[in-house]
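Troubleshooting log. The previous structure file for this entry was overwritten by mistake, so regenerating from the original sequence record. Sequence copied from the archived sheet and checked twice against the printout by T.R.
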Amino acid sequence: MDKLTIRQPDDWHLHVRNGSMLRSVIGHSARQFARAIVMPNLKPPVTTVAQALNYRQEILDALPEGSAFQPLMTLYLTGNTTAEEIKNAADCAHVYAFKLYPAGATTNSDGGVANIDAAYPLLEAMEKYGVPLLVHGEVTDAEYDIFDREKIFIDRTLSRIVRQFPGLRIVVEHLTTAEAVQFVESAAANVGATITPQHLLYNRNAMLAGGIRPHYYCLPILKREHHRQALLSAATGGNPKFFLGTDSAPHLTSLKENPCGCAGCFTAPIALELYAEAFASVGALDKLELRQRFRRRFLWVAAQQRHGDLDQTGVAGARGIRRCRFGRCHHAAACRGIACLAFAGLAAGQFNRCIGSYQPEAAAAGVSIAERDF
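Regenerated output below.
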């Protein structure tokens, strides 16, 4: 296969931050994707419809000129969320879901839900008004091993939520384990899940074997190889419950390459190429567009009509997939001090280190510039 033409996809799980960081990174997602579900874990978090609409406008204002990219907004569920706000979200054309962060589970989750049981009245209101719940599925108790936290959350918490609220649409975000795949497969049709490119391509050896590589560090953390294989089978199979969400999460290089580095992989510049490589590795490249269709139906979002190409340029197999022709993939973000998967060696050998063109003028966005040689 020399060329794959697909409908322009949507990213069903994206972090773009705000302020100067937003202005630095949003162009990467806008060049590859038509729309994205935007996560609300800012400082302070996006907890009301009014805040979400303001954040949406900030994103639109930061887009490259002529971009048609559409942010699909979410709200951060807290102990102070009210049933009235959930009704407001249901009535707002630009808000699509609430995100449940167990307190302390990941970046900017300190304001998350500490007592899930106390949030049951809110889940009941979401079920009533048809608002989906997006779940970061990990426990945060210090006594539990970090590699077991997803499974424990599913066994102890998520399984009860699914039983208690059978009409609530639930998306288990960024699956990482075979047990999570089995849970979603066996649950009712209103339970779905997203899968990231890094969890499809890498296991925990990539982060830990031969030295610690912080650019592979994300939460939930990379797991054993048999878990990666289960995710790959789910992503490339025919089950409509599984969709693609990059969980692209930018951090400054100085905070990523750090004795206590941040969790998150900034994959936006090469997200489609990474997914294409994962699908091609099991001979399923033809299913890449189909995987996008499933969540559009799940969230009642209309399909996009624009099409574009992924090129394979003479190198055999997935390693030849080089760039997305929805737009040039300018890797300027790394030149602004943002830690990017493409420049951390994760994609070395698969893709050119500079797929597009260096834009030094973009450094004026205000993000610290790292001293690197590209």
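Confidence is low (pLDDT under 50) at residues 313-335, 343-374. Archived copy saved in two places this time.
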